[in-house]
Design a protein that fits this description.
The chain is α/β, with parallel strands linked by helices. It has 15 helices and 13 strands. An eight-stranded mixed beta sheet has the order 11-10-9-8-7-6-12-13, with helices on one face. The chain has a three-stranded antiparallel beta sheet with strand order 2-3-4. It is globular.
Amino acid sequence: MNKKLFHFSRYLHWKKKGRNIVIFHELHPLPLYCSYREWKKISVSLNKADISFIKQLKKYKLIIKSKKDDNKEYSKTVQKLKARLNQVSILYLILTWDCNFSCKYCTTAQNAKKWGNSNMSFETAKAGINLWLQHLKDNSNKNSDCFIIFYGGEPFLNQETLIKTLAYIEELQKQKKISRKHSHVLIPTNGSLIDKKIIKLLKKYKTEIVIAIDGPKKINDYCRKDTNDNGTFLKIEKTLRLLEKNKIRTSASVAITPFNLNQIHNYYLFCNKYHIKQFGFNILKGRSVLNLVSKKNINKYYTKAVNGIIKNFVLSKRPNFEALMETKYNTFSNHLFPPIDCGGCGNQLVIQPNGSITNCPFLNYDLGNVKTVGKNFRIWKTKIVQRFRQRLPLWNKLYKNYEAKSLNGGGCPWNVKELKGNISAKDDFADIFAQKVLDLFIWSKFNKKYEN
């Protein structure tokens, strides 16, 4: 092999830890390791590297013959990302923005002002499902999992539409218009209204529950209060026991607040206590974060939250236990670079209570109404979805030479719109998270390979 024919890729990055170096590709960070002394020689001239190491550098596209090789690698990554963008998998049916809780960080009142606080009718829910089915027909991957999410507010405040819609979904499954194997029906809830009658309903339709709970009683009740300003933990705990007893698949949604920030690193223990199989951390977003965190301290809050999320991941020893880390882990392990943080980039359809179609539950973009749009409407063809996609670091100029590009899914447009006034702005949480997770993964491989 003629080493003089090769030179370093513009996508090559390296990091030092003690006497060791990790080298990786910006678009797909599969790590290579060497000593710092060896790297100093190689970085001056490839002629000083042994043939076996050169072969590895070539295999990982870290050395190239010309700029065309880099351009080709970039184009391949872009095409893989685009293939995932027009794959609609999620339908949000927002049954109501009304709620019987009054949590300090919630945006329910704000959303009710935008879309009205009326309940969704069954006719609207049915039209939403039918439009979603038209989108599913266009998916290139027919066997990917899909999700119908009954959202709110508190969805169980609109039980009439919920019950009728669950029956309609079952009918579609019997007709094989919705795959039983690949479809999931989820209801995120505060848990206060679940009784024996609803348990029977959940069992009948094999529905999954996502309970919002922020931790033990003292921590949870700082923010999660009912409309009479009472703590809600005991109600939620009772519901968790009821769901466990009846073997209802239950996940949890955990908001990270200043009141649980120092405890989130061991939340896997809290979830184990209540037999919660999976859970997801939620960073505070939008203007509501300013109710609990001052603007000057937001990045400190993000950094501390990321450290806690990662530590919880490491201590739990269960890669698929917490949703944020599961996405990053699967992206890295299965080479699915880069991830997509926001379903509003073309992966979800959101139906507001009045039938308005949006790509985001929280931003005020009215893209038509399910009762009037034709069968040919596709969410990914709308201008706002195209604007959301321009945020993605793979082609966003704000991320030029950004080493964690492969693990950064662009963050939340709603968050940056409310905090920075522009949906094209960088999401600081997403940037911090991607960088720290990249560091964790590339050095974890080193530790397994050389230190054990």
